[in-house]
Amino acid sequence: RMSASRTVICLLRNDLRLHDNEVFHWAQRNADHIIPLYCFDPRHYQGTYHFNFPKTGPFRLRFLLDSVKDLRDTLKKRGSTLLVRQGKPEDVVRDLIQQLGSVTAVAFHEEVASEEKSVEKKIKDICCQNKVKVQTFWGSTLYHRDDLPFSHIRGLPDIYTQFRKVVEGQGRVRPVLSTPEKVKALPLGLEEGTIPTFEGLGQTEPVEDCRSAFPCRGGETEALARLKHYFWDTNAVATYKETRNGMIGVDYSTKFSDYSLKTMLALGCISARYIYEQIKKYEAERTANQSTYWVIFELLWRDYFKFVGLKYGNRVFHMNGLQDKHVSWKTDMTLFNAWKEGRTGVPFVDANMRELALTGFMSNRGRQNVASFLTKDLCLDWRLGAEWFEYLLVDHDVCSNYGNWLYSAGIGNDPRENRKFNMIKQGLDYDNNGDYVRQWVPELQGIKGGDIHTPWTLSNSALSRAQVSLNETYPSPVITAPEWSRHINNKSSGPPAKVRKGSSYTPRQHKDRGIDFYFSKNKSF
């Protein structure tokens, strides 16, 4: 017999927050009882589609477990809790509907990619069979899908700059939704469920690496505190442009915007609209400059990749990419293993890949370089890199990850199809004295200055003094590109006169490579 009370299941996935969450906002007005639900879907802990790498790595899982625990704590303070189950969401939702008999609606945020859309379809079918309403929302982007100044998603420009100019000129950002002081209670008789352990999900808890550039934890509470620290307590956001391309140091890229922000956004611990609201408030009350604008600029990049995913669907995962461009990609696993393990013999690449493997983090600059190296120098199938990043990155977002890999491979949204990064030039530009490489490739620590980027060019006596033996203590490069030679004799022989504390030295001519670099027509990689 149907109960008179109305119960709404709020299915949470990549929206692990209470603030600016339309699912909770709607449920509060349309239910007597609310069931906030998170499911540890076993499909997320299986293998990737093409190469069967683990789908969720240990660093992202730790961040996810932190975020689930934090949301449960937040809800408990407001008279509710988070129901946690291990199982497929469609099965868990069906069981709850049949167990309770009072479920009137299931509410969730829509996702973009096919695996998530498949889950949504199954939930809709189950609800239809049980005469339960389905209420869906769009909440993962800064600009709402329905507010884009295009008549249809097919009208989305294929070049980011065109999208950005139209959206900035004609679009509007919706206001942030209020956070409920109290959340309506669960119906009686429901066990909240235990949050699984690493072992219960087939993982080993990662060991914290003392060199990690980002030792922060997950969750909405941490996200809001980090934003407050980054914006209001330290004013660090006002110098983001000057620091975003540094390679080492706890404050480089201020750790919020280039990494923490992306990670928190990927799991929905913070909303893009809230970040935008705080930036606008900061600009009105403190200062507005290129650095504050750059945060919005990067939120727009994230939006763009989401909307590209909507426009092209599964083509973002296809070997030939958005352009259906046929490239003779290789799947040489010996080369790939050298890349993923950080033993290519190219120190700047190896340092970045080792940092990723040991921390789940890699700077934006590093990602661009290792992706270029894999696709343009090694000519390996870009999906090898995309699926490896999917496994290890803490801040993995399916649309951003695959969109960026398509971009790097020259089969996505980059009008400069043949763009290729010069590994030696990039290493010298952004790690001029080699401090970053020394941190992650300690077997090269004896090599001084910028020479560390090209150990294979050093004399036997220089290598001997540095206690480096090529192909024994460190490999010779798996490949050398002809364009590298232009920069081999242009290396720093020692430390700069003055080094900014906490960041690797970047020469003066590259200090302003943030916004100026993007809008400049004279680009050299």
Automatic annotation (TrEMBL):
Which GO molecular function, any one, fits this protein according to its record? FAD binding
Site (Electron transfer via tryptophanyl radical): residue numbering on this chain: W329, W382, W405
> Does the record bear Flavoprotein in its keywords?
yes
- Signal peptide bounds: none
Provide the Photolyase/cryptochrome alpha/beta domain boundaries: 6-142
Q: How is the cofactor bound?
A: Binds 1 5,10-methenyltetrahydrofolate (MTHF) per subunit. Binds 1 FAD per subunit.
Q: Which InterPro entries does the protein's record reference?
A: Cry_DASH (IPR014133), Crypto/Photolyase_FAD-like_sf (IPR036134), Crypto/Photolyase_N_sf (IPR036155), Cryptochr/Photolyase_FAD-bd (IPR005101), Cryptochrome/DNA_photolyase_1 (IPR002081), DNA_photolyase_N (IPR006050), Rossmann-like_a/b/a_fold (IPR014729)
Annotated residues that bind FAD are located at 240, 253-257, 298-305, 395-397
Q: Which cofactor does it need?
A: (6R)-5,10-methylene-5,6,7,8-tetrahydrofolate; FAD
UniProt keywords, alphabetically: Chromophore, FAD, Flavoprotein
Q: Which residues cross the membrane?
A: none
Q: Which family does it belong to?
A: Belongs to the DNA photolyase class-1 family.
According to its UniProt entry, the function of this protein is described as:
May have a photoreceptor function.
Stored NCBIfam families? crypto_DASH
According to UniProt, the name of this protein is: Cryptochrome DASH
